[in-house]
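Cast an eye over this sequence plus tokens and walk me through the fold:

***
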Amino acid sequence: MISSRQPQWFHFGPWVFSIDAAEALITTTPRDTQHLDVPTWAAAYGLTHLDNPHQRAVSLVGPISSTLDRAYAMATDLTKPLILCHLSINGHPPAPLLIDGTHRLYRAWREGVPRLPAYLLTAEETRQIQDTVLLGPGRTSITSPLTR
């Protein structure tokens, strides 16, 4: 049976992260989940201000008010672990970035759930699931697809 499910990608700046590759990596390299602090991460992703009708700023990391599907968020499974990667930018030490579970994080924050389970990928694992928006998945140069 062929699945009609579309590949899942998380976009952040010039990068895209394959959620499917992250899930496969977690399956082949099992690990314990970590506890993600919901209030801290919800605030960092701007989720605590999404429903403010007088909002005057946008989050640089999380979704904007019009892009978060609240009905979908409120029906998500809070037992499914979120996925965080470790992203290193310009030689700085790697920092965690939520790449899968924003809707679950929103629901947990709205319902007052203090913690969610999360898988944490290493910086090396992050590089394995990461591509650039300009190049696209699997591309290694900016040359036109016609000239490859």
